[in-house]
Structure formats: C-alpha cells, structure tokens
Design brief:
Layout (H helix, E strand, L loop, with lengths): L5 H5 L10 E4 L16 H13 L5 E2 L9 H18 L5 E2 L18 H7 L5 E4 L2 E8 L5 E7 L2 H14 L3 E5 L2 H12 L8 E7 L19 H10 L9 E6 L7 H9 L3 E4 L13 H15 L6 H8 L3
Parallel strand pairs: 1-2, 1-10, 2-3, 4-7, 7-8, 8-9, 9-10
Antiparallel strand pairs: 5-6
Helix pairs in contact: 2-3, 8-9
C-alpha cells in the first residue's frame, strides 16, 4: 500500500540552492565526551574562526555556562566573540537559548539575543518550540535519569514575538513532531520572518546529553524520519528552508541520511554540539569537512558565505 512518504523515497536529486553546512561547535557536551570539545573562551573563539575559514555557512555556539542569563550571558559570550569579530566582523553566527530551569516566569530564555544583535552581529535566533526529556544516565537500579528541557507556550510566544519585533529570522528547533506542529502555527499565521528555517533533529541512541545508549526523545536518524518531517512541512503556507541535525548517533553511519538530505535540497548542521560516539573523537573541522565531502560527492555546490547570508535573509 502506497503512503505519502513514498514520493520522497522515489524523488530524484533536485535542489534550487547550494547546500549550507553549519558548524555547531559546542553545547552541553563535555571534554569527557570528546577532548576536542571547545570549552574555554579561547577554544570557542579558535574553533569558530577555524570552521568559518574552512567554509561553514554559519557558526552556532554556546557560551561557557548555560546557566547564565541575559546580560551575564551576553558578557560571557563576548569574551570569546570579541576575538572572533576582530578577525571576521561579518561572520554569520548565532547563540543558543538559556537554561529554562533558571528562568523567571517573565523571562523568555533569549534575553541576551537583543544585546548580541546590537553588539556582536547576531542576526538569527533559535526558537525551540516545545519541551523534551533529556536522558543522561541510568541509576543503580536501572532507572533512566535526566532533566527536562524546553519552553512552554508562553515562552515560545515571547521568543517568536521578540524575533518579529527585531525582524530576526527564527531557527525552529524541531526535537519532536509536535514541535513542528506548534511552529507551523506561527509560520501559517505569517509570524515567521523571511530567512527563518526548520531544523529537524534526528536523534540517535545517545540522545543529546547521554554517555550511554539511552536516548529517549526524538525520531531516529533514518530516511523514514526525514521523509516524515518533509511531509509535515508541506502544509506550511510559507516555504522556509530546512536543515537536518543528527545527534548522539554513536556508531551509526549517518552518511546515507546526510546524503539524501543534500540530494533533496536540504541543508546540514554538524559539529561537536551534536556528535557523540564513545569510540571516536573527531574535531569540529573534521566533521565539517566530512559533510562537505558528501556534498561534493552528490554534486551539489556548497554555499559561499554570501550565498548563505542570502538564504538567511541577512542584510
């Protein structure tokens, strides 16, 4: 019996834009997970510069503490980004959100973004449209432990409102299919700016934070998961570009999924924020170059910095 996903499986390679490959250089992952993870101010700055100069279409970075909010978060970012911006003042980059567990009811989690927009060339913002459970380990009795991450309706609304007021494109982080449905509301109501984009999280056995294979959220890194998301966004009244990011894949060879996304016109997010395999310790540069090689093998051009800015609608 045919399904709506068959058309994606049968589709021939086709694209109308060069592929953008972003480098997501750090996150909540530690040097215990990979000693090449940039943690210090100097390491963050050096990796950002290295990946930008190697052709990343944009850099996504955390500061040194997810717990810092608003002005404190801004000042911490700038201890790395002053160095980056001195060398590349027009670099395309964007920060993360803040720890939702530390927010007051009136805080959105993006209080640092307007400051970085004014002082650090940030023209894009993340909007994570939902709440997920992040597994981290199992206890002595075998029960999964972890924490809650994400934003409720009020905080998502305040983030979308802020982006509209600042005329900033939004990156809709789609951790689960329900996130796409919530983001779809704002897209279909004309409440997303030109240059906004879908980021489909495909999540492997190690999830987003775990050191053991107990991932419990998201859709697995398979072609079927990719096709399902593509089917969902066909309902969108505004056609934003889409990306995939593959998280905590372990020993899974993600080449097939990355290749198919590139063939179907999607874009790629890669880097040590996403990657975890206990048997491998690549660098951010190596992960970027691997994705670039897949694009070259497909035959799809890699976007220049100017071409990427055009897709993000950065002026």
């Amino acid at each position: 019996m045919a399904t709506a996903l068959d058309k994606f499986a049968d589709a021939k390679p086709s694209w109308d834009y060069p592929v953008i490959i972003e480098s997501h250089i750090n996150g909540v992952r530690s040097k215990e997970m990979n000693p090449n993870t940039p943690i210090s101010y100097e390491e963050i700055a050096d990796d950002a510069i290295r990946c930008w100069e190697a052709g990343a279409g944009a850099i996504h970075a955390h500061n040194t503490s997810f717990d810092l909010l608003e002005n404190d978060a801004y000042k911490d970012y700038m201890r790395s980004w002053d160095k980056v911006l001195e060398k590349h003042p027009n670099i395309t980059w964007y920060p993360t959100t803040c720890n939702n567990l530390r927010l007051l009811p009136e805080q959105s989690g993006l209080g640092h973004v307007p400051m970085l927009r004014s002082g650090a060339n940030v023209k894009i913002a993340c909007v994570d449209t939902g709440i997920s459970l992040f597994s981290s380990h199992t206890d002595e009795e075998g029960y999964i432990r972890g924490r809650e991450y994400g934003f409720n309706y009020d905080r998502v609304a305040s983030q979308v409102k802020m982006c509209n007021e600042l005329d900033m494109p939004m990156i809709f982080g789609i951790y689960e299919p329900g996130y796409a449905r919530l983001a779809m509301h704002y897209v279909n109501q004309g409440m997303s700016r030109q240059g906004s984009m879908w980021d489909f999280y495909l999540i492997g056995d190690y999830g987003l934070t775990a050191l053991e294979p107990i991932g419990t959220c998201g859709m697995k890194p398979t072609l079927e998961s990719l096709y399902y998301y593509l089917d969902m966004i066909e309902e969108a009244k505004v056609k934003h570009p889409w990306y995939i990011s593959i998280w905590g894949q372990g020993a899974l060879d993600d080449t097939t999924v990355l290749r198919r996304a590139i063939e179907l016109g999607g874009h790629i997010k890669t880097g040590l924020e996403l990657f975890y395999d206990p048997a491998r310790n690549p660098t951010n540069l190596e992960l970027l170059q691997q994705a670039q090689e897949i694009a070259k093998d497909v035959g799809r051009p890699i976007a220049t910095h100017d071409e990427a800015r055009a897709l993000y609608s950065i002026r």
